Amino acid sequence: MSKINLAELTIKKAGGLIHNGDISCRELVSIYFENIKEHDKNIHAYLETFDDAYELAGEEDKKILSGEEPKPLAGIPLAIKDNILIKGKICSAGSKILHNYRATYDATVIEKLRSAGAVFLGRTNMDEFAMGSSTENSAFGPTKNPYDLKRVAGGSSGGSAAAVARQECLAALGSDTGGSVRQPAAFCGVVGLKPTYGAVSRYGLIAMASSLDQIGPIAKTAEDAEFIFNIIRGKDPFDSTSAELKIKNYQRSFRVGLLKYDRDGVDEEINKAVDNCADALKKSGHEIKEINLPYIEYSLPCYYIIMPAEVSANLARFDGIRYGFSEKGADLLEDYMKTRGEGFGKEARRRIMLGTYVLSAGYYDAYYNQAQKIRKLIREDFEKVFSEVDVLIAPTAPTPAFKIGEKSDNPLQMYLSDIFTVPANIAGIPAISLPVGSALRDGKELPIALQLMAPWFGEKILFELGKQIELNKK
Amino acid sequence: MVSLEEIKKLALLARIELGKKESEELQKSLGAILDYVSRLQKFPPREIETGVLPENHAPEIFNASRGDEPIEDKSSAEKGEYVKVKHVF
Q1: Residue B19 to chain A, least CA–CA distance (Å)
Q2: Mean pLDDT, to the nearest integer, of A198-202?
Q3: How high is the ipTM of this complex?
Q4: CATH for A1-474?
């Protein structure tokens, strides 16, 4: 077995090595498990690793040895966020209330990856029920940023992003409700895609806010993210919001919209990275145009009404009777109160309470209904803009990774770190976060990122432009 | 902005047992969050059609549920013709 440079390894390269017989699937899995053993005690990206990964890899090896054409993801080691069901494995959504819940079926995305030959190394840490921007809300302790262990990995898919960044898997799945794939990808220096609402089936994803949730890949390159996306996407009879992607033809040069935003609220290095990228794109023949979205600033308040409203409804099913954790009281009502009071963490309790408030009689019109109206306006804003440009460019997050504990006592401050990612979920459009450099903080080089947003089902544009931006970086 | 009485009521509606300290903390943080999201209310209440999901590609589905017919499903907590559950009232 030749020595492999994991930092340079991509899905495409690994596929080539396996194809040529330079390495077996089993060997590749064992290299990653060694790396997990060495590094995961420091960053805590995984909640559990799966020993049956060796068997799955061995099966792929056997098929290849018997002369079968290797499957597209044969032996590729992936990590899966802890809110996506894998049959027979615990799926806790980072919560005490589901700590012993074992999935009874495969999520559609898992089934698709499995038939493509992928191997699942384990389930990754996350903010409880995907509620958070730092992974500090996990009931099982935070994930640390591989670039600075004193800082957060981002969230809620912090475990998946950190695992990819620290070479503890080749790629991973996350879920993105308000930025939960893109922001941790930005903080950890990897690529994260939030697909168009409906592009990927959510059957088997533990629901947080159903009009916003999407499963997306976290990978090292735009090409790898595209590879995974093309395997998991498509219509699924088990998710009525899913749809087939109509891949449109595209030109080599795009009309790129540079989003106008409050530059004072964003770290200097990130503003500069966005400008540099726009300049580089202009030089390579793309048209650059400044774009103003008047309603975009209302995305975040809109999100913090709609999301908790849906959370309070979706999490009503955790009653101590149907799933996992249960605390007994004197009567049925007390059973519920105790189970939910103890089983949910602090942030989950807060969002359920907030959702209950905005949906309650007397407040419904002022909050929830109003938010739905504003959501429509935001969507119309994007529709208009995408008749003028093909793609938008903006920061992913206003700062690089912040320190552990820095925002955990101030929920509103934490929410504001989603300011650039939430609009894509509100409108349902696809967006990708790409690493574009670094910023020095406390003597550590921290990754910074920018974000591309495309019209509905315009993922292809994101990948093409993403690849060009990666080339410009080199 | 939110009274402790309201927090108590919400907790009961949400079926979440809360301690005194957390109730007070929630009074503060929910107040701050509601204050922040209230900026949406400055928009004039003009008529905006919200009946359709913002995601316009979801197909319309009619009567996706099965017919209302009894099926043979023996629950373990069954007693005669009834299913056994804990006292509700």
Answers
A1: 9
A2: 95
A3: 0.90
A4: 3.90.1300.10
